[in-house]
Design goal:
Elements (H helix, E strand, L loop, with lengths): L3 E4 L2 E4 L4 E7 L8 E7 L6 E7 L4 E3 L7 E6 L4 E6 L8 E8 L4 E3 L3 E6 L1
Parallel strand pairs: 2-11
Antiparallel strand pairs: 1-3, 3-8, 4-5, 4-9, 5-6, 7-8, 9-10, 9-11
């Protein structure tokens, strides 16, 4: 079964940067989109950023200008570059890859931003 493996989370000071990676354990065909979600303590899961098969991107208003989503189709990998991190960015981040028939979720990686 396909598994998405996330990496890159950790503890960083406010204003710092982190780069999250999410790689599929095997090739996923007919990918429609990839994205990142996050869930902060006591909050609902929210969409952070998406990128379509055609390379079009969209990011949440709260992270515009600070976060960038990118992908490597050949490696079935999606990235989230996070700059100018704020304490309110603290959350568990989950990647998602939407295929033609189903979607896949990563296990989540903790991002903690200290003030």
């Amino acid at each position: 079964q396909v598994q998405l493996v996330e990496s890159g989370g950790g503890l960083v000071q406010a204003g710092g940067s982190l780069r999250l990676s999410c790689a599929a354990s095997e090739r996923i065909l007919s990918i429609n989109a990839m994205g990142w979600y996050r869930q902060a303590p006591g909050k609902q899961r929210e969409l952070v950023a998406t990128i379509t098969r055609g390379g079009r991107t969209n990011v949440a208003e709260s992270v515009k200008g600070r976060f960038t989503i990118s992908m490597d189709n050949a490696k079935n990998t999606v990235y989230l570059q996070m700059n100018s991190l704020k304490p309110e960015d603290t959350a568990v981040y989950f990647c998602n890859i939407a295929g033609a028939y189903r979607s896949y979720w990563g296990q989540g990686t903790q991002v903690t931003v200290s003030s």
